[in-house]
Amino acid sequence: MKRALITLGIIALVGLTSSAFAAESTFKFKVTGMHCDMCPKAVEKAAKSVKGVTDVKLTLIEGKWENGGILEVTATETAKPNQIINAIQKADKSYRAEEIKE
Prior knowledge:
Helices cover 39% and strands 29% of the residues. By secondary structure, the protein is an alpha+beta fold. The protein has one domain (23-100): Alpha-Beta Plaits (2-Layer Sandwich), CATH 3.30.70.100. A four-stranded antiparallel β-sheet has the order 2-3-1-4, with helices on one face. A hairpin with an 8-residue loop joins strand 2 and strand 3. The longest helix has 19 residues, at 2-20. The radius of gyration is 18 Å and the shape is globular.
């Protein structure tokens, strides 16, 4: 029994360690179509809903949602840019997102 618990503990530790070191990428998107003060949070929430997204930060252009914003998304390799774009545009029909390739 003790050996089984130790084995399970090692397996759990290895699983946590391998997921903690999964390769991450950062994507940038220009987001437009926001129409109120609540939109920036809705955009961030939509991006966070994509499996593999670990962090998001939306910076409004000139501090105003009317001007759109730049969304930086950090994600593991499971999250793809098109999935993030689709999630944002699905959150509100007026939102538009396009990847900024650097």
